[in-house]
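okkk here we go again. third time trying to get the manganese (II) ion bound version out, last two times i messed up the smiles copy paste (missing a bracket lol). double checked this time i swear
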Amino acid sequence: MDRYEKQYTDALRFIDERDNFLITTHINADGDAYGSTLATAYWLQALGKRSTVVFHDSPREEKYRFLRGWGDIIDCQQGAASQFDAAIVLDVPNRKRIGDAADLLPPAAHCLKIDHHPEEEHFADFRLVDTGASSTCQLIYEIVCRSTVAFDTELATLIFSGLIYDTGRFSFSNTRSRDFEIAAQLTAYGVRPNEVATRLFFSNSYQTMKIIGYGLANMESFLDGRINVIYLPHEIVAQAGQADLDELANYSSAVRGGEVGLFMREIDGEHLKISFRSRGRVDVNRVARQFGGGGHVHAAGCRCRLQGKPDDIKMRIVAEIAKQLDT
Ligand SMILES: [Mn+2]
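finally!!
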């Protein structure tokens, strides 16, 4: 039995022996976070278990309204009223990224982490972690296959959403043949790929589209075009749906000749959310970690305080990336 089979067996036993689960994920929940938490809740219900999905973020993002269970997600304040026997934490490498929902976690002996990020911190004694997986939703697919629950269209759609989100519609470097196999299976269970893709990638508000245009029109270029930066001040960000702006991170690295793209947005008067995208040479997980964030080699993010002028932090990050480009 290989390492991963043991992880699946242990994870299934963890669930089998407990009831009443807290399910949570990282702050700024994305398509994989929504897909994996809601798929887990749906699956647990089919297994006859109780669960509650709690997010740090509030309110729920409109973009994900089509996902089954979206309306049942609660925020930390509501979650604080409940007691949970156990927790399943999805798509998160460290406690800090869970945000305020981390305060609701039971002791590590009753936590299961399911994730595809490199491990950073021990907060769960039970772990199903595979950095070779494209998405946390892939791992949910694999574990559901090993359980007694049969797939239906709802469950397949939840899993498919995380799969296409984290692979950038099967175009990012994390995309493997396994993702196409799973996608084929999920489609056979009733997923409509064009409907999910339209909901996730092509359903922006008119206002958001204009703001994406503003971001592109004001893109800045550093180091002869090897680093490209899109910066949005708070007064602009406030006018758009946050999840809808995520696509700007991908645009920042879509410039020919670019090595790294940065999408920086002021989430309030004091904090910046920064998304990093690398075309391959630069490990942006390393860069993001220096600013208190993390992620993967090709895609990472961080949230940090806006001290001084926006240009100061921009130049500090550009300098960190330049170090890696020069070696
Ligand atoms: Mn993910």
